[in-house]
Design a protein that fits this description.
- The chain is α/β, with parallel strands linked by helices and 421 residues long.
- The chain has two domains: 119 residues, Urease, subunit C, domain 1, CATH 2.30.40.10; 288 residues, Metal-dependent hydrolases (TIM Barrel, Alpha-Beta Barrel).
- 37% of the residues lie in helices and 22% in strands.
- The protein is built from 17 helices and 16 strands.
- Helix 10 links the parallel strand 11 and strand 12.
- Helix 5 crosses helix 6, helix 6 runs parallel beside helix 7 and helix 7 runs parallel beside helix 8.
- The protein is globular.
- The relative contact order is 0.17.
- The structure holds N-(iminomethyl)-L-glutamic acid (NIG) and zinc ion (ZN).
- Zinc ion binds next to loops.
- The site of zinc ion (ZN) has 4 residues, from loops.
- It is an enzyme of class 3 (hydrolase).
Length: 421
C-alpha cells in the first residue's frame, strides 16, 4: 500500500473553500463540486476537482481508492469550544435543573464547576488521558477532526497544569488535533470568595507564567460573567496573557449582559463564545473587529435558555462558529447532530451557514483557518465521507450521525461500514 488516496465519484464535494473566516452573507457559500475527486498525498490534500479534471491525468493503480459514489464529502468538523478533559460527573445536577434550580444557583451552592474541580484534582494524569481518549473517539464518530479543549477544572497551579498536560498527551497519542486553551479563571475557588482580584493576580503571577514556560496553551480564556469575573478583571487577565503570547477567547454574555462582546472586540480576541445576551453594539463591534462569534446551542438547550441571536449576529456581518461546549455540567454531549438540529431549527441558520460554522469558521475560531476547515489544496487531509448523496441530508436526518468514514491527516481513522461488519 502506498501513501496516496484517491476519493472518487463523490456526488458532492462540499469544500467550504477558504483560508479565512466567512462573515455575514459569505456564510451561505459552500463551494460545492458535483461529481468530485480528491487526491491525498501523505497528510495533505494534493488536488481537488471534478472527476473529469482529476482522472485524466493520473494512473488510478497508484492510489488507494475510496469510491464515494452517491455520497457527499465534507471537511472534518471542528469542535471549537469544549471542556473535554475533566474528572467526575454531575448527573445529579441535571436532575436538580429539571426541578427548577438554575445553573448559577447550583454553582452558588458549591456544585457546578467547583464540583468538577474537586473531582479533577483527585484524578491522575493517566486517568484524565484515558477519559479523554474515550470522549475523543466519540467525537470522531461524529466527524470531528480538530477539537479545542480548555483547562479550568483546576483553579490551582498543579491541577491546571495537569489538565493541560493531559491535553498535550492526548494531542500526541490521539489522531484528533487539539487546540489547547488555558481557562484558569473559570470560577472563583472557595478560599478566594470576595477576593476575586486576588485570585486574578494569583493566576497572572503564578499559573500563567508556568503555562507559557511549558508551552501548554495557545489561548487564554475567562468566564466573564456576573458573579464570576468582571469585565475589568477579565481585561487584566487577557492582556497579561497577550503580553506572554497567548491569544484571547472569552466566555462572554452567557447569562447576564455585562459587556463581554465589547471587551472581546476591544482587546482583539479571536473568538467570543456563548453570547446569549450580547448587545447590538457588542455584536457590531465584533463584526468590525473580526471576532468570531462561537455559538453553543447545546448549552442553551440543556439550560433551557433562549438561543443566541444567530440571525442578528450573521446579518450584522459577523462570522459565526458552532461548537458543542462538551462539559460535565451545562452541556454533556459530543453530539454534532444535536448542534446541527438546534442551529437549523431554532436559530434560523441555513444549512449552508451551519456547515460553514462547523468547518471553516470553527477553524477560524481557533486561528487555524489556514491549515484546516476546508477541502483546499495544501491543507491537512481531514475529510469526512457522509452516507448520503447531498449535504442537505445531514440536518434532515435529525439527531443522527451521517458520518461513514473519517480521514484525519491522510489516514482512515473511522469506518462505519467496517465497524458494522
Ligand atoms: N459557562 C461556563 N463554563 C462552561 C460550563 C462548565 C461547567 O458547568 O462545568 C460552559 O461553557 O458552559
Ligand atoms: Zn465553555
Amino acid at each position: 500500500m502506498n501513501n496516496k488516496i484517491l476519493i472518487k465519484n463523490a456526488n458532492q464535494v462540499v469544500t467550504c473553500s477558504g483560508s479565512n473566516q466567512k462573515k455575514g452573507s459569505e456564510m451561505n457559500e459552500l463551494h460545492v463540486i458535483e461529481d468530485g475527486c480528491i487526491i491525498i498525498k501523505d497528510d495533505k490534500i494534493e488536488k481537488v476537482g471534478t472527476s473529469e479534471e482529476i482522472l485524466k491525468d493520473i494512473d488510478e493503480k497508484e492510489y488507494n481508492i475510496i469510491d464515494a459514489k452517491n455520497k457527499c464529502v465534507l471537511p472534518g468538523f471542528i469542535d471549537s469550544h469544549t471542556h473535554v478533559v475533566f474528572g467526575g460527573y454531575r448527573a445529579e445536577e441535571y436532575n436538580m435543573r429539571l426541578k427548577g434550580i438554575d445553573y448559577m444557583e447550583i454553582m452558588k451552592r458549591g456544585g457546578g464547576i467547583q464540583s468538577t474541580t474537586e473531582a479533577t484534582k483527585k484524578a491522575t494524569l493517566e486517568e484524565l488521558v484515558q477519559l479523554g481518549i474515550k470522549r475523543l473517539d466519540s467525537m470522531v464518530s461524529f466527524g470531528v477532526t480538530t477539537v479545542e479543549s480548555k483547562s479550568g477544572y483546576g483553579l490551582d497551579l498543579d491541577t491546571e497544569i495537569k489538565q493541560l498536560e493531559a491535553m498535550k498527551k492526548l494531542d500526541d497519542i490521539h489522531p484528533i488535533d487539539i487546540s489547547k486553551t488555558f481557562l484558569g479563571a473559570h470560577a472563583v475557588p472557595p478560599k478566594y470568595k470576595g477576593k476575586e482580584d486576588e485570585f486574578i493576580d494569583f493566576i497572572i503571577e503564578t499559573v500563567l507564567p508556568k503555562v507559557v514556560e511549558d508551552d501548554l496553551a495557545e489561548f487564554c480564556d475567562v468566564f466573564c460573567e456576573k458573579d464570576v469575573f468582571s469585565v475589568e478583571q477579565s481585561r487584566k487577565l487577557l492582556k497579561s496573557a497577550q503580553k506572554l503570547g497567548l491569544k484571547s477567547k472569552l466566555h462572554a454574555d452567557e447569562i447576564v449582559r455585562i459587556g463581554g462582546a465589547e471587551l472581546a472586540s476591544e482587546i482583539g480576541a479571536i473568538s467570543a463564545d456563548h453570547l446569549l445576551r450580547a448587545s447590538d453594539q457588542g455584536i457590531r463591534m465584533m463584526a468590525e473587529n473580526n471576532v468570531v462569534a462561537t455559538l453553543l446551542p447545546g448549552t442553551a438547550f440543556s439550560l433551557k435558555e433562549e438561543y443566541a441571536r444567530a440571525r442578528d449576529i450573521i446579518d450584522s456581518g459577523c462570522a459565526v462558529a458552532l461548537a458543542t461546549d462538551m462539559n460535565p455540567g451545562s452541556c454533556f454531549t459530543e453530539s454534532i447532530p444535536l448542534v446541527i438540529a438546534l442551529a437549523t431549527l431554532y436559530m434560523n441558520m441555513s444549512i449552508e451557514e451551519t456547515i460553514n460554522a462547523l468547518t471553516i469558521n470553527g477553524a477560524a475560531a481557533i486561528d487555524r483557518a489556514d491549515t484546516v476547515g476546508s477541502i483546499d489544496e495544501g491543507k491537512k487531509a481531514d475529510i469526512v465521507i457522509h452516507e448520503f448523496p447531498t449535504y442537505d441530508y445531514i440536518p434532515y436526518h435529525i439527531g443522527v450521525s451521517t458520518v461513514e468514514k473519517v480521514i484525519k491527516n491522510g489516514k482512515l481513522i473511522f469506518d462505519k461500514i467496517k465497524n458494522e461488519a
